[in-house]
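Our collaborator T.R. sent over the components below with a one-line note: 'Predict the complex.' Nothing else. No constraints on interfaces, no templates requested, no preferences about which chain binds where. So this is a plain run: every listed entity goes in together, and whatever single assembly comes back becomes the starting point for the next discussion.
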Amino acid sequence: MKITVLSGGVGGSRFIEGLLRTKGPGDDVTVIANTADDIRLFGLHISPDLDTVMYTLGDGIDRERGWGRTDESWNAKEELGAYGIEQAWFGLGDRDIATHLVRTMRLQEGRTLSEVTAELCERWRPGVRLLPMSDDRVETHIGIDRDGHRELIHFQEYWIRLRAQVPVEEVVIQGIDDARPAPGVVEAITGADVVLLPPSNPVVSIGPIAAVAGIREAIERTAAPVVGVSPIIGGGAVRGMADQLLTGLGVDLSATGVAGHHGARASGGLLDGWLVDTTDAGQVPGLQALGMAGRAVPLWMTDDATTDQLARDTVELALSIGRRG
Amino acid sequence: MKITVLSGGVGGSRFIEGLLRTKGPGDDVTVIANTADDIRLFGLHISPDLDTVMYTLGDGIDRERGWGRTDESWNAKEELGAYGIEQAWFGLGDRDIATHLVRTMRLQEGRTLSEVTAELCERWRPGVRLLPMSDDRVETHIGIDRDGHRELIHFQEYWIRLRAQVPVEEVVIQGIDDARPAPGVVEAITGADVVLLPPSNPVVSIGPIAAVAGIREAIERTAAPVVGVSPIIGGGAVRGMADQLLTGLGVDLSATGVAGHHGARASGGLLDGWLVDTTDAGQVPGLQALGMAGRAVPLWMTDDATTDQLARDTVELALSIGRRG
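Returned assembly:
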């Protein structure tokens, strides 16, 4: 079976770990990772979601933090602060820097982000084919109010420095209109047996991936069922900081709200099916009304067992929906 | 008194520390640092001599090693090795990386190396005016024999990876013909009361500085006495690794040999005076025959007291020679 996953960072990575532990021996997993939260800082090209997937699946992640490297030190970051560099709010670990250096160096040599990702994965051997959504530069900026006037700041600054606690007035995905899918991305979607959306942020993770025109089109035309997992459980984001991002865009803070935001494939959206938490079981009929299959299962990935069961449930819902046409 | 020093890295920095401890309260020190051992590695612009001077005088140097930062960690370097990056032989410390990141970022923003150096020195407050010899890119490459054919490698690779143990067939200072003195450099030489050459490598430290046409010319026309300290004591380099570099260029491994390599100002060279170690006192008459003042004093900078005395002796020799014209 060919499984293709559209993924953000932390939630996506954990879900994929479950998928890899539970998949059949002949199953292949391709991960298309969001690159819209990439940022150039300190002259470095940083790809947080690609790195989180790569480190998590390659067993290099700090599991407690959920991002960044194991056995990390923060000396370069401390020194950047001592130099008065303003962006030293970014979580730049010393081990992590090596990844950014290799990526930046290769991009400057004229390689694509796909090629660099493949090179980095030669070391990490994540057990999946890891593809950036696009080799073109895409950056999510968040519009906030600063003393009465609108200011656009990079998503990372919003997320890390402001801890996502400021109301969101606008989300601008710069470069998205010109972004082409990276090599292999379209084929991975159209050639898949199932396409899965892990519990990732609908606005800044899944949103940008699906906003790449060629990817959107591939999702529209793939025969594979597309099934997602709600990142909202009982009215709050699994990783709490996403609340402002959703409400700022008028997305209802509920499993059904996010499903409606993505939309049903039957009516030009992304989803054939949507998993909600058992505490949200009452929303399943509403999902069916939206035009998608709904199912309530435990969504909290608190340990390997629950994560594995969620991966199984997601694949099962997809298979129960079956291929189109 | 205005004191201008042409400096390489370790030896120069130690000498300047002595100078700062012993100078009069109204004396100003300007340091013109070699930038020909600068290297671009991992996409970073690294300026080893500038950094060694800055860290040493700003009390950020690891005194035992003589280069790099105190309390340093090496995680990024280890990771670069794990990625199979070949140049991971370079001593890239995690704290040190921050300096390279700031420098590289600023240069990419269009600032000059002089401007970046000034910015970095705002933090380190080295107590001197620190100027790069040039804002133009200059790189020393060493010609070695590899299986019967000549290969040019960067000086840093020769010095660090090969530990300077391979015969030198050629020294090529790339870019030197087009390099202009950085702002303030010419004035610092022509306006000085004394110009001092600490015990730095004559081929790869003092050599490139003096090879910048505008600097050479400023040395020719300054009225200030120019006095140097031999980096050779009793037939060996104070920092042993320089031997191959000197002999490969036909420089006699002696205090007088290096003095002759630099040449007397009276005959178009660099020096009005030269300090040799007391063990080399027998060479003083030969120096006078070369057309420069010679004096034998203890040259080993083993502690603050000996370093300070050497700084005093150097200034004293310069003052005893006096201004020209």
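Summary for T.R.: The longest helix of chain A spans residues 304-321.
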